[in-house]
């Protein structure tokens, strides 16, 4: 059975303006992907594309005015979108663990690091406190925290950013999750520390055999690290597939731009800027949302965009997916 | 930093502040034209009598010299004599401070005890029914003038309903005052098993305490709500949810993380209630420090005014010291400094 299956997920921000008219920001528009145990999926896309929102929708962490208005999320066959809050609470931090972006502010400032690890274990298991304590030390060891005994007694504000991120990883591992979702786990860390954390994460994923989703701005991370990639734009996954295929034959113009915009080694299809504003989520255009920024757009692009299979598991959301090399490249000519 | 060094440093830091306060009140009182000589001498006094009173009070000397003498006296714990009460100002203040503190303690204590949970509950469901009702009520609490509230309460609960005793002080005139131990009739009554006195003192406390509680609860509700909403939106709480911590655990976490800013606010509020206290004490003829200060100002008893302001400054200093210590005990990030 597929571990995680997200199908046609729609999340909207529904609010009212000053005149009490309903306003809807269509932030997720039919997101679908699936994840098997042992695989690593990288979600990329520009800021505001809906990457974090996808993660929050999946694990039921949306806050008003965000609301799932359609689609389904199945974890081991269980539907999460309709699950009761306390049942979801038992899943989160247990079978589905999250690593977030701001480790230092995310940890509870008034609780010692070790106690937070223990608390998380206690909440999700019947283990004796001593066993939780032991496990906390083991996990701190596993994420490469030197001298866990004394670090367990540290307060969050005493940790460096990298150390705090290791603590979050230890938190995530505490209950041996089946799915790990890491939302920009290295943003805000030094470059060297970033590399350490990513290496660590890769080792842990292999060692603990978790399905993993990494949300990132950095295609390099995806290339090094992930099995599959999902490229998001304006609340849709515009292209997805095995990393190798997508990097070798990007089928969506946005993916091409993205790859073209990353330094040297990932430069495919010539350098192009990622110019342009993201579309207004309150007012998405009919047809393809990327139209205004696309060098290949034609009148056909005003019509609903088909999900096109480039190969068996390589899919792109574009009228011309797979035919771009044949089509005239307006931008390249300009 | 060790606790003793902290206290020492704080004391050294506070000293110039207190001297400044003494200086400013001293000057303001002189410039403000509070002159007791006329009242002391009476309407029929001759110029010679005037001058001799001036001389007695030291008012014929230059201002800076008067200040130096006063400062020297204050340093030795001598705040001068009040001509209204004919007693050392320090004695007056000591006696009346307890009386005011008793009222302040119950008033703000109940205000906080009621206000903090209300603010929290409103925060957990912002814009819900409870929040909306609360907002209207605390707006009322903000906008009602204190003295008016006091008068209306007296009118309703004493005059119309007869539930409360008359607003003529801290105890019925018909009851024997208890043996003075702390200076609070209620506590002294309880300590000496003088139940009549304790009961009478308690019943006299009710209206002014409710009045003060209402006035102080409004800002506490508003601030607590704002603080808790901020904490609820923090990374910490988001992450707690992401970790699947049960609702009860998350609430506890919110409470703990709101505690420091809320306590700090309540402490700050206490030091800002000077004016309110004066009015309430005046309306209920309470006879505490607030009323003392008000009387002193009105009748130009300037040694008393100076002593009163100095006492208030000292009170603020102590309150902020206590806040710092309490915060330090709850909050691992804080350093005593
Ligand atoms: N309250 C709101 N009302 C309307 N739109 C909102 C609201 N909050 C967020 N959004 C929109 O939801 C979209 C998705 O945001 P999300 O945080 O998922 O982006 P992201 O891809 O994670 O970006 P980043 O790389 O910056 O983290 C954004 O375009 C944002 O503008
Ligand atoms: S559908 Fe049209 S506009 Fe959209 S990406 Fe493809 S070519 Fe560009
Ligand atoms: Mg994000």
- Fraction of residues of chain B in helices? over 70%
Largest interface comes to: A-B, 27 and 21 residues
Q: Helices and strands of chain A, in N-to-C order?
A: EEEHEEHEHHHHHEHEHEEHHEEH
Query: What amount of the residues of chain A lies in strands?
Result: 15-25%
Write down the oligomeric state. heterodimer
Spatial separation of the terminal alpha carbons of chain A: 49 Å
Shape of chain B: globular
**What is the CATH third-level topology name of the largest domain in chain B?**
MetI-like fold
The count of domains of chain B is: 2
Q: Report Rg of chain B.
A: 24 Å
Q: H/E element string of chain B?
A: HHHHEEHHHHHHHHHH
Distinct ligands, ions and cofactors found in the model: adenosine-5'-triphosphate, iron/sulfur cluster, magnesium ion
At CATH level 2, the architecture of the largest domain in chain B is: Orthogonal Bundle
Task: Output mean pLDDT of chain B.
Answer: 88
> Would you state the CATH class of the largest domain in chain B?
Mainly Alpha
Low confidence ranges of chain A:
264-273, 327-334
Question: Helical proportion of chain A?
Answer: 25-40%
Share of β-strand residues of chain B: under 5%
């Amino acid at each position: 059975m597929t571990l995680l299956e997200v199908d046609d997920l729609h999340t909207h921000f529904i609010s009212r303006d000053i005149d009490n008219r309903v306003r809807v920001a269509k932030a997720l528009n039919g997101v679908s992907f699936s994840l098997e145990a042992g695989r690593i999926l990288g979600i990329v896309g520009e800021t505001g594309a809906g990457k974090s929102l996808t993660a929050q929708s999946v694990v039921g962490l949306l806050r008003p005015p965000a609301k799932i208005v359609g689609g389904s999320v199945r974890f081991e066959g269980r539907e999460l979108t309709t699950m009761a809050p306390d049942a979801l609470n038992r899943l989160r931090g247990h079978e589905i663990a999250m690593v977030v972006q701001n480790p230092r502010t995310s940890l509870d400032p008034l609780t010692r690091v070790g106690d937070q690890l223990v608390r998380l274990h206690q909440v999700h298991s019947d283990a004796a406190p001593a066993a939780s304590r032991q496990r906390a030390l083991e996990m701190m060891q596993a994420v490469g925290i030197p001298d866990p005994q004394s670090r367990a007694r540290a307060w969050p504000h005493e940790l460096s950013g990298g150390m705090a991120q290791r603590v979050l990883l230890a938190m995530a591992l505490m209950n041996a999750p089946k799915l790990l979702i890491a939302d920009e786990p290295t943003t805000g860390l030094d470059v060297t520390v970033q590399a350490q954390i990513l290496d660590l994460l890769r080792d842990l994923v292999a060692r603990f055999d978790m399905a993993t989703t990494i949300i990132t701005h950095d295609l390099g991370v995806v290339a090094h690290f992930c099995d599959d990639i999902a490229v998001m734009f304006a609340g849709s996954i515009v292209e997805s597939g095995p990393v190798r295929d997508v990097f070798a034959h990007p089928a969506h113009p946005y993916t091409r731009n993205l790859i073209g915009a990353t330094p040297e080694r990932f430069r495919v299809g010539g350098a192009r800027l990622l110019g342009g504003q993201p579309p207004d989520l309150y007012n998405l255009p009919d047809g393809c949302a990327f139209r205004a920024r696309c060098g290949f757009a034609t009148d056909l692009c005003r019509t609903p965009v088909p999900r096109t299979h480039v190969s068996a598991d390589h899919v792109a959301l574009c009228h011309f997916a797979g035919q771009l090399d044949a089509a005239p490249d307006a931008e390249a000519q300009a | 930093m060790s606790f003793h060094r902290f206290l020492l440093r704080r004391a050294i830091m506070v000293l110039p502040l207190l001297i400044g306060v003494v200086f400013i009140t001293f000057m303001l009182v002189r410039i403000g034209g509070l002159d007791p000589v006329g009242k002391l001498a009476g309407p029929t006094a001759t110029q010679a009598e005037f001058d001799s009173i001036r001389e007695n009070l030291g008012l014929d000397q230059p201002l800076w010299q008067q200040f130096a003498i006063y400062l020297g006296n204050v340093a030795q714990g001598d705040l001068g004599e009040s001509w209204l009460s004919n007693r050392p100002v320090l004695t007056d203040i000591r006696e009346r401070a307890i009386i005011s503190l008793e009222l302040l303690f119950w008033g703000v204590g109940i205000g906080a005890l009621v206000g903090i949970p209300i603010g929290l509950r409103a925060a957990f469901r912002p814009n819900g029914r409870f929040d909306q009702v609360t907002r209207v009520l605390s707006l009322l609490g903000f906008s009602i003038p204190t003295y008016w509230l006091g008068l209306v309460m007296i009118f309703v609960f004493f005059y119309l309903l007869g539930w409360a005793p008359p607003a003529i002080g801290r105890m019925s005139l018909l009851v024997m005052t208890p043996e003075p131990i702390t200076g609070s009739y209620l506590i002294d009554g309880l300590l000496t098993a003088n139940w009549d006195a304790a009961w009478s003192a308690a019943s006299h406390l009710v209206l002014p305490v409710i009045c003060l509680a209402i006035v102080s609860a409004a800002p506490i509700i508003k601030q607590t709500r704002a603080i808790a909403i901020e904490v609820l939106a923090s990374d910490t709480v988001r992450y707690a949810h992401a970790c699947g911590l049960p609702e009860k655990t998350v609430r506890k976490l919110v409470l703990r993380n709101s505690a420091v800013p809320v306590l700090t606010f309540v402490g700050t509020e206490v030091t800002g209630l000077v004016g309110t206290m004066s009015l309430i004490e005046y309306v209920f003829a309470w006879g505490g420090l607030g009323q003392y200060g008000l009387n002193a100002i009105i009748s130009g008893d300037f040694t008393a005014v100076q002593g009163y302001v100095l006492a208030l400054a000292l009170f603020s200093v102590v309150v902020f010291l206590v806040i710092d210590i309490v915060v330090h005990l709850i909050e691992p990030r804080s350093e005593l400094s």
